[in-house]
Amino acid sequence: MDRNIDIMAFFNTYNRAAIAFSGGVDSSYLLYAAKQAGADVTAYYVKSQFQPDFELADAEAIAEQTCAEMKIIEVDVLADDIVCSNPPDRCYYCKQHIMAAICKAAAADGYTLICDGTNASDEVDDRPGFKALQEYGIRSPLRDCGLTKTAIRERAREAGLPVWNKPAYACLATRIPAGERITADKLERTEKAESALFEMGFRDFRVRMRGDAALVQIAAAQYGEAIEKADRIREAIGGMYSSVSIDDKTR
């Protein structure tokens, strides 16, 4: 597709579409643009054990703001032993489940075109999940139109979308090292720990499992604050781990 085409022109041409919706800045702007173009769209949010509750809350808020219909699909990703075994290409198998569920729901609603929020900055060669998107015939209008992450954030800011500066978020499963089995307990501990840090005012961070210990990785902008609050962090989440260490997320 011609990357010079505008996103509005895309939805003028393809004016009926289902959108794989996460509540992040990319899919939120995609949904906004589709609605602004007057397209008939429905957002499909997949809720699994890999998504924390705040992601669903963000998605619901954006759907309400854009006056878009949003449907929630529940998928039990832990029912797949390959996903639980956590191979390096786990994302591919997980994305297969997600896209299969969205395609099924969208087809039942009469949609033949399904779009996602992959953008022109995404390194698709390093994303196993992108292979699954291709297999299911998912279109990525933001990428097709040459819109980078920076451009999308700026457009989202201008549109008044509150997620315009939301840090990129990877699912909870990414906190568990590849090859280490994923369990509901590990995911729940991770979500509780990250919720505790979020309540303390941190915004761009990860709580990664290292055996039964936690490695808290904080973006450089708040790393100094994290060191100052180290005792509070350990007090808040230490009961869930054998030990807690803090590091700069960029290293």
How does the helix and strand content classify structurally? alpha/beta
- Mean model confidence by pLDDT: 94
Q: Outline the biggest β-sheet.
A: 4 strands, parallel
What is the CA–CA distance across the termini? 37 Å
Strand percentage: 15-25%
**Strand sequence of the main sheet, in spatial order?**
3-2-1-4
Total DSSP E strands: 7
- CATH class division of the largest domain: Alpha Beta
Globally, the shape reads globular
Helix content: 40-55%
CATH evolutionary superfamily of the largest domain:
HUPs
Count of DSSP helices?
11
Order of helices and strands: HEHEHEHHEHHHHEEHHE
Quick take:
With 251 residues, the chain is of the alpha/beta class. The protein contains 11 helices and 7 strands. The longest helix is centred in the middle third of the chain and has 19 residues.
